[in-house]
Design brief:
The complex is a heterodimer of chains A (about 450) and B (about 350).
Chain A lengths: L1 H6 L1 H5 L7 H8 L3 H15 L6 H7 L3 H4 L3 H4 L36 E2 L18 E2 L13 E6 L5 E4 H6 L3 E8 L16 H5 L2 E10 H8 L8 E6 L6 E5 H6 L2 E6 L2 E2 L9 E3 L12 E7 L14 E2 L5 E2 L8 E6 L4 E3 L3 E10 L5 E7 L7 E2 L1 E2 L9 E9 L4 E9 L8 H8 L12 E4 L5 E6 L1
Parallel strand pairs in A: 3-12
Antiparallel strand pairs in A: 1-2, 3-4, 5-6, 6-9, 7-8, 7-12, 9-10, 9-11, 13-14, 15-17, 17-21, 18-19, 18-22, 20-21, 22-23, 23-24
Helix pairs in contact in A: 3-4
Chain B lengths: L2 H17 L10 E2 L2 H7 L14 E3 H16 L18 H6 L15 H4 L3 H11 L10 H14 L8 E3 L2 H6 L8 E2 L28 E4 L21 E3 L10 H5 L2 H11 L2 H4 L11 H7 L6 H11 L18 H12 L4
Antiparallel strand pairs in B: 2-3
Helix pairs in contact in B: 3-7, 6-7, 10-14, 13-14
Classes of the chains: A alpha+beta (about 450), B mainly alpha (about 350).
Chain lengths: ~450, ~350
């Protein structure tokens, strides 16, 4: 026993850590008083816990380092104590929120994703923005059916069993409501990026390409020019999609970020229409009809139509053109001090991939090219970052996206010159955030 | 088939499955029956494909309206209380041109449904699939014709003796005030469409110095609550304090039964028609409490009214059934109301 203790040198040598060479020599010579005094001195340093924090910092260092926190000195929780994990209890501030006064009825409303604190390009499923037309439902997958009818050789019915056996793809795509930034057409209306741009999310979706199902039913190539998608909820929302678009990259999806869709996002089946505004991504998808004409449904005749200055409405406006926004620093945030920051944000285009993002700190006079983080995918959010040294002077931060068609995100005045200020939908203007000398960031428009 | 051939076929099958998504038709799913298609294929197109047989008069529509539609949309479809107004805002001249004139220019009034409606099928289709709000798809085809006729009557598109059916609906199409108001001449329908703006990616000394043209007024600073609570409390930024810190008692109130009853009332749309103190479309909760003061037995009656709806107790406006609530929720609401909605 004694032999084995001796071999564990660290244990017997510990006192040497706070004994000088002379002291050790003294101990070795039998002057044990030295040892007793040295032990008392070491205990006094350990008693820093009882000292005022400032004194401890001044004397020895950060109390959060010097005093071990409970998570370092206690036993943690066992596995599976939260069988479906939740965010940290310190992360309650970043949640979906409604914009007060925007709508009167919660079942026909919008909740916005907290873009101001999200990282990368994937939106956590529980923070995905919501837009429901007649409330959300939790549909029983065993009783859910997808019907395909209209101009097809054989109208068919598929169960979830059928659909999940078919060949699947997994693709990362953004979804943006056509009315995102819609409150800002006339003037600044809301304070933060959550409310200006939060009807935007991006997920990895898994499902069957719609083209596989259309082929399976034998759609009529000569006359089948349009597809109608219809939901199973109370509103049974319907939207028309051109057949070329439907055959290109549309997915009948059941998976989202590795799990099934969330009920608020259409569990167990939704349409994914890359590049197209969210209203066409019909949730709780129950039916696809092939036809030779568009369907003129409520959400493509009375809503989601863009009012132009001449009094006509643009109907079937669908594509979400290239757009970007700085998410930090952004409106309603306060910089913690002068010096170095990473300006970070998101860029996306309904027509393809993001080629470039430029950032200005002087309201659009001078621009620098931001770094695009990988992956840079077609019709998906792209994260951009750029260094910025804040010297305490007022600044106006802007970002400007350019997609792989060469299209450059417009300024607000450019957009208004063509579309006026009453169209509600498809506002993809450059966003401006003013930084005050106090470090407070606010939403502004510049001309 | 010899074992060798069989094994060969299996090997080829596996190899093909690994590289090609489909070896032919997957033979999954089954043919839909005519009855199934009829049950779900309820869309009506602008050319009236899908329009069911049936008819309904303006007068019949008025009865249905008063019972099932008025509480949200108002007597004349004018209500802005819950949803945007349905009727109003068009002129006789608009009916001639098919283009609502007031939509042009910078001072567009609030747009009603009938100011935008270009295809009458849209109105019929939507009422049929999604109305009434809390009981979608519960109207018969004749009732859908009748309600559609009544909405058109509210906007003077048809007169009070009008009967809408598969034939007359085609005439109505030619009278819609905004029937010529839609355009598809834009680049946002297809991914290949041409954009209508052409910004240039200038990098140095672009244009004039930025001039702030719009910012949030000070009075709107707290309109979205305390922004400090909508950001992390660590990292490169904090949320701006836009609201004074709440008193410590708030947490206790928020978890009390009364607070959860108020949340229940808000979540279920009760507060759209009933204020705590103010009459909106229905009586205030406190008026109700006052009427039943000292009559604890009335809780059953109130619970029933919440679940089943009622009319005549508080004036003309009927209260629709709230049958999406369960009994316990209705009971909790009734108790809270009788306790004075505190």
């Amino acid at each position: 026993m004694a032999e084995s203790l001796k071999r564990r040198g660290a244990i017997v040598r510990a006192p040497e850590n706070f004994l000088s060479g002379d002291q050790i020599a003294a101990v070795g010579a039998g002057r044990r008083d030295f040892l007793r005094q040295a032990m008392i001195a070491a205990a006094a340093v350990g008693a820093g816990a009882a000292m005022p924090a400032r004194a401890a910092e001044a004397s020895a260092g950060d109390p959060d380092i010097l005093n071990l926190p409970p998570w370092s000195t206690t036993l943690g929780k066992p596995v599976a104590s939260t069988p479906y994990g939740s965010p940290s209890k310190f992360e309650t501030n970043l949640v979906r929120r409604e914009s007060p006064g925007l709508t009167r009825v919660g079942a026909s409303s919008v909740s916005f994703a907290p873009l101001q604190g999200l990282f990368g390009i994937i939106t956590p499923s529980g923070l995905h923005f919501e837009r429901h037309h007649q409330g959300w439902q939790d549909v029983d997958p065993a009783r859910h059916r997808l019907m395909i009818n209209g101009l097809v050789g054989t109208p068919k019915v598929y169960t979830m069993d059928d659909l999940m056996r078919l060949p699947s793809v997994s693709r990362i795509h953004f979804i943006e409501c056509g009315a995102n930034s819609g409150m800002e057409w006339g003037n600044v209306a809301v304070p933060t990026v959550q409310y200006t741009h939060g009807m935007l999310s991006c997920s990895e979706f898994t499902g069957v390409p719609l083209s596989v199902l259309l082929e399976d039913c034998g759609y009529e190539r000569s006359d089948g020019h349009y597809v109608l998608a219809e939901g199973a909820d109370g509103s049974s929302m319907t939207r028309t999609i051109p057949i070329d678009n439907a055959l290109d990259d549309v997915i009948v999806a059941y998976g989202q970020n590795g799990e099934m869709l969330r009920p608020e996002n259409g569990y167990p089946l939704r349409l994914v229409v890359p590049g197209v505004q969210g209203v066409s991504w019909v949730k709780w998808l129950r039916r696809i009809e092939i036809g030779d004409q568009p369907y003129g449904t409520k959400d493509e005749s009375l809503h989601y139509v863009d009012l132009m200055p001449d009094g006509t409405h643009r109907q079937y406006s669908s594509i979400q053109e290239a757009k970007s926004v700085i998410t930090t620093p952004s409106g309603g945030q306060q910089l913690v001090g002068q010096g170095y920051y990473t300006v970070t944000g998101l860029a996306w285009s309904g027509r393809g991939a993001i080629r470039r993002v430029d950032v200005s700190a002087d309201g659009g006079r001078n621009w620098r090219r931001a770094k695009l983080e990988t992956p840079v995918l077609s019709k998906a959010l792209t994260r951009f970052n750029i260094d910025w040294e804040w010297d305490g002077a007022p600044a106006i931060l802007q970002s400007r996206a350019i997609d792989d068609t060469g299209y450059v995100q417009p300024t607000m005045p450019q957009l208004r010159a063509v579309r006026g200020s009453k169209s509600i939908y498809h506002n993809n203007a450059i966003q401006s955030w003013a930084v005050a000398p106090s470090g407070e960031v606010s939403n502004v428009q510049v001309g | 088939m010899s074992r060798l051939v069989k094994r060969g076929a299996l090997a080829i099958g596996l190899a093909a499955a690994a590289v090609s998504p489909l070896l032919g038709a997957p033979n999954l799913g089954r043919p839909a029956t005519p009855a199934e298609i009829a049950a779900w294929d309820i869309d009506v197109r602008p050319d009236f494909k899908g329009l069911p047989a049936g008819s309904g008069s303006v007068m019949q529509g008025q009865d249905i309206w008063e019972a099932q539609c008025e509480s949200c949309h108002g007597t004349f479809g004018e209500s802005n209380e819950w949803f945007t107004p349905l009727a109003g805002g068009t002129t006789a001249a608009d009916q001639k041109t098919g283009h609502v004139k007031s939509l042009a220019g910078p001072d567009v009034p609030q747009r009603t449904t009938l100011m935008k409606l270009s295809t009458v099928s849209t109105l019929f289709d939507y009422i049929r699939r999604a109305m009434p709000w809390t009981a979608p798809k519960s109207l018969s085809d004749d009732e859908v014709y009748a309600v559609t006729a009544y909405v058109l009557y509210l906007n003077d598109v048809v007169d009070d003796a009008f009967v809408l059916d598969q034939d007359t609906i085609r005439e109505v199409q030619g009278r819609l005030p905004n029937r010529n108001g839609m355009s598809r001449k834009h680049g946002l329908w297809l991914a290949s469409g041409k954009p209508d703006t052409a910004n240039k990616a200038c990098m140095r000394n672009c244009g004039d110095e930025a001039n702030v043209t719009s910012s949030l007024p000070d009075y709107a600073r707290d309109a979205h609550g305390n922004l400090a609570d909508q950001n992390r409390t660590f990292g490169p930024v904090r949320g701006v304090q836009t609201v004074a810190p709440a008193p410590a008692t708030d947490a206790a109130t928020a978890s009390s039964p009364a607070a959860s009853a108020l949340l229940l009332a808000q979540d279920n749309g009760c507060t759209g028609c009933h204020g705590v103190d103010e009459q909106i479309l229905g009586p205030s909760f406190r008026e109700v409490a006052k009427r039943y003061e000292g009559k604890p037995e009335s809780i059953g009656k109130l619970t029933r009214t919440i679940l089943q709806g009622g009319s005549g107790n508080w004036g003309e406006m009927p209260m629709p059934a709230q049958d999406h609530l369960d009994d316990a929720q209705a009971d909790a609401l009734a108790q809270w109301i009788l306790d004075g909605a505190q």
